[in-house]
């Protein structure tokens, strides 16, 4: 395949209202950075995006499970080897548990290498009578509450590209260089079970995996051949100037790809059918996801399906449901039934984080682990009842022992939040809570009622 050519494709999204875009104060500086990005090498390639679309097609047919996770908002200062190792290790551990429990392949996508921009509910923030622009992620401005830091700076778009490249380089080296070895990942999980305060609950599944590996060894299977892992990256495609500058036309097929990541998603605040984000992503060949919050209705979902997946291609479109624990059992059935009646095969994924954010007495934004688990459980229950496939989860997590979400096996209490509250935006599950969730989700998949239909095994 010839390399991707530079983007000379449609800029049609510029004719549509673009929500959540920064007000760049220096247009000349913005144009200069975008010109540099237009000439920069792609971060990912068309063939990789096509492979992920095929893998997601298996999820849509009930033949695989999707696991996506990573930071709420990546920061330039945390683009470190240690942080990337931790997130990747956590996702690999979760994937082994889900693979064994479901007997299905797990498609692994990091919320990494591009998640540097965030939508905001307000354009400005007030503190002690001072009003400044809201923090929109390191791709736009700084977290510090000063006029200088909060001034949108186009040079940060170039830093976003460079930090994403750094992350991708390390992820590719780790996933092909032995870090993902199955025996090592299982040993990590055994350590988790041994030290977790609720480890006894997971001992049976961990023992089953251990016996499976022993059986493979006795049969002469060389598990060193399992020392690599397919791993993709994705982020919210929020900053359309950046995405457009990194759009490339594949010389072999003539199709346009957003080369900033393999899977890009449209957020709850930008999924307007008449908006610029839907227009832009309707014109690239990547697999695309859309977040659906509690205001989503069947008409909106069908409109998104028609705009983003007119050919009804399995793996092209993923719906990520973020309804909240109290709403998911009421909201989801109508949406799933409508899409099912249309005959479309989309991936249905649970985002149990964004609909369950609360504010603790200390003023910290947090999430209750029990509410996160309950939303996932409701998501799985609905699909089991309808005979459809609960495709997987999309979670905000870190490999560090932060104290941002309350509860979990090694319970974090509200009074612990200040100990290691390190997120740049929303609270994340820590390493232990992430593994707790993986083991609990594995139990939910195993609870599938006999004869409930669907194509999942």
- Derived from helix and strand composition plus strand pairing, the structural class reads alpha/beta
Q: What gross morphology would you assign?
A: globular
Taking the alpha carbons of the first and last residues, their distance comes to 36 Å
Number of helices: 13
Tell me about the largest β-sheet: 8 strands, parallel, barrel
Radius of gyration over alpha carbons? 21 Å
Q: Widest sheet: strand order?
A: 1-2-5-8-9-10-11-14
Mean of all residue-level pLDDT scores: 93
The count of DSSP E runs of length 2 or more, i.e. the number of strands, is: 14
Uncertain regions: pLDDT < 50 for 5+ in a row?
453-457
Would you list the SSEs in sequence order as H and E?
Answer: HHEHEEEHHHHEHEEEHEHEHEEEHEH
Q: Give the percentage of residues in beta strands.
A: 5-15%
Q: What percent of residues adopt helix (DSSP H or I)? A: 25-40%
Describe this structure in words.
With 457 residues, the chain is an alpha/beta fold. It has helices at 27-39, 46-60, 81-102, 147-150, 155-176, 182-195, 199-218, 240-245, 276-281, 298-308, 328-342, 369-386, 431-446, and strands at 65-70, 106-110, 124-127, 130-133, 232-236, 247-249, 256-258, 263-266, 288-292, 317-321, 347-350, 357-359, 365-367, 392-396. The chain contains 13 helices and 14 strands. The strands form four sheets. The chain has an eight-stranded parallel beta barrel with strand order 1-2-5-8-9-10-11-14, surrounded by five helices. Strands 3-4 form a two-stranded antiparallel sheet. Helix 3 packs across helix 6 (182-195), helix 6 (182-195) packs antiparallel against helix 7 (199-218) and helix 11 (328-342) packs parallel to helix 12. The radius of gyration is 21 Å and the shape is globular.
